[in-house]
Design a protein that fits this description.
This protein is α+β, with helices and mostly antiparallel strands and 321 residues long. The protein has 10 helices and 19 strands. The chain has a 6-stranded mixed β-sheet, with helices on both faces. Helix 1 packs parallel to helix 6. The longest helix is centred in the C-terminal third of the chain and has 16 residues. The chain starts with a strand and ends in a 17-residue tail after the last helix. The protein binds flavin-adenine dinucleotide. The site of flavin-adenine dinucleotide has 40 residues, from helix 1, strand 2, helix 2, strand 13 and strand 17.
Length: 321
């Protein structure tokens, strides 16, 4: 028997991670991407954070996902992986106590500074996602710059077809899946120059990430559930600037403002698995695509070899019938 052929539709973070793993397991992988510019993957800030900061606790299987993510990205890193702990200033005593008695502390995710005014989150860091996608494009043997409008053709000529399109339309998912599967969330990031140099930090409702180009930083991000247009809006930029300045981050210039929509699922976990016959989904990465994609890709590939996908990720959890 020849090599099994896999069509991966979409080459954002999810498609890139999945296609590379699939290719390295010996499948003949063909990628199809319509090459849009402002996709969430190209806009993404790039943070890998295993914690829910608002709940002060690790995400589900946080260590497993984070370890696999760093192992995977570091393996072919060509200068896009920055595994540095994210720093948070915790000046308020009540907050210090809350973090000290949190599940994040109990499970070994926190390192405190000597005076307890700062903490570092273990297994965190960031990835330059544009470089990640560029670098992975070069490693894929069959890359087709093309929009797929008709799945039927691919379903006939490939052994597996994988939808890594971010959001998947209800008509493709089929009537057995809940219609409100996706709860897209719009987000803005600002590329700025700052008055003084600044480390990789998580502030209150805001993060700051130093960039490749000297004195350039990413500030983010907004989370808007109710929106009409996907475009930068000066009001939202002002909100981010005001938030930064209130916390002592002084901006000298806004260099760029980028906006995209996170393909989030109602329960904030990706959807992974078989939809029907040879059609599979690897989507719904929400606001944590970099964190979830490497281990989730492994789970989908293992399922083709007979393993079971955890019910927390399995697309079957979204069936209504
Ligand atoms: C402002 C903002 C900040 C973010 N920050 C972070 C962060 O710090 N860390 C993090 O992990 N995540 C972050 N995210 C979320 C992250 O962007 C997503 O989790 C991730 O990009 C989803 O990747 P994806 O590959 O599933 O989807 P996408 O990026 O949407 O990729 C899908 C690809 O499929 C292509 N496509 C779609 N339909 C077709 C078709 N019919 N034919 C061919 N091609 C098609 C699209 O053009 C696209 O290239 C952020 C998102 C936003 C908006």
């Amino acid at each position: 028997m020849g090599r099994q052929k896999v069509a991966v539709i979409g080459f954002g973070i999810a498609g890139a991670v999945f296609a590379l793993q699939c290719q390295s397991r010996g499948y003949e992988v063909h990628v199809f991407d319509d090459f849009k510019t402002e996709t969430p993957s190209k806009v993404a800030a790039g943070i890998i954070n295993p914690l829910s900061v608002s709940r002060k606790k690790p995400l589900w299987c946080a260590k497993e996902f984070a370890k696999e993510a760093w192992r995977f990205y570091s393996k072919w890193d060509t200068g896009f992986t920055y595994q540095y702990p994210m720093v948070m200033d915790i000046k308020n005593t009540r907050l210090q106590n809350e973090w000290s008695s949190s599940l994040a502390e109990e499970t070994g995710f926190l390192n405190w500074s000597d005076d307890h005014s700062q903490l570092e989150i273990n297994y965190s860091g960031w990835i330059d996602t544009e470089l990640l996608i560029e670098s992975s494009t070069n490693q894929i043997n069959y890359y087709h710059r093309k929009r797929i409008n008709d799945l039927e053709e691919l379903e006939k000529s490939f052994d597996y077809v994988v939808l890594a399109t971010g959001k998947v339309e209800p008509e493709i998912m089929g009537s057995q899946f809940r219609e409100d599967l996706f709860r897209p969330v719009l987000g803005d990031l600002l590329e700025v120059s700052l008055k003084e140099s600044y480390p990789f930090k998580h502030l209150e409702g805001l993060f700051v990430i130093p960039q490749r180009i000297k004195d350039t930083y990413i500030l983010g991000s907004t989370y808007i559930h109710d929106f009409d247009k996907i475009e930068p809006n000066p009001e939202r930029a002002s909100l981010l600037v005001a938030k930064a300045e209130r916390q002592g981050v002084l901006i000298t210039k806004i260099l760029n403002h980028r906006t995209a929509v996170r393909p989030a699922i109602y329960d904030r976990m990706p959807i992974v698995g078989q939809i029907r016959n040879n059609l599979h989904v690897f989507a719904g990465m929400g606001s944590r695509g970099l964190f979830h994609a490497p281990l989730a890709a492994k789970m989908l590939l293992d399922s083709w070899e007979g393993e079971t996908i955890s019910p927390l990720l399995n697309v079957s959890r979204s069936c209504t019938k």
